[in-house]
Amino acid sequence: MTLRCGRDVQSAYIIESAKYDLHLSLERPIPAGETVEFSVSTGFPVETKIFTGAVHWSMSHRVNPEIGVAVSAPVAPELIVASQGSLRNDIRYPCKVAGMLGLAQDKMLKPATAINYSRSGMCLQATEGFEIGQELRYEWSSWVGRTESAGGRIIKASIRWISHVGGMSLIGCDTPEKTLWPLASVDIVKLLQSPTASRTNTLRSGKIF
Question: pLDDT (tens digit, 9 = 90+) per residue, 150-160?
Fold first, then answer.
């Protein structure tokens, strides 16, 4: 596909995609927080659609830079590319975000680290024991504007699964529907609400850019 960020136009390749999310490989890096526009062609006769999305995750130190792009309009079903053996509806993005974790009603929290996130959840690594179905509260420092306390961001989540590895607990959590891509370093919900991010055009064949 062809991807545009401002005046920069480059080729992008789909690594994995979901209904509202694309994991792309690029020629040149694009930082989180940027709005991008991309075109994809499907069907016969060829129909080209132009989507606009917001970059919520960026990994520039790999051989080919990679980004995660949140889109407000659903991706065409024929473009959904799940990783091999994956049954997930959302794409997981690696991260390392240190914070404090406890039950939703607890006042005392213990250290934990978020190791990946998706559009609707996150995975936490902790030494404390929890049970499936419990409601958790996770707090971490962030410059993102939508904070609930002066110290950083707070999110409540429900435990969906737990795995024990080497004395540590990996905790898979579902996050509230209004909190999309919860650990992104930018406010994706706000970016997707901008006029440009909600635009989707359809053209019949031909070159877009």
Answer: 456 889 999 99
Vertex 63 angle, CA 144 and 51, to 5°:
55
Measuring CA to CA, which residue among 110, 156, 117 is closest to residue 134?
156
Domains (ranges, CATH) in the chain? 2-86+189-204 (2.40.10), 93-184 (2.40.10.220)
DSSP 158-183: EEEEEEEETTEEEEEEE--TTS-STT
Query: What single letter denotes the amino acid at residue 177?
Result: E
pLDDT tens figures, 29-40: 999 999 999 877
> 201-207: long-range contacts (C-beta < 8 A, 24 or more apart)?
201/49, 201/50, 202/47, 202/48, 202/49, 202/50, 203/47, 203/48, 203/49, 203/50, 204/45, 204/46, 204/47, 204/48, 205/41, 205/45, 205/46, 205/47, 205/48, 206/48
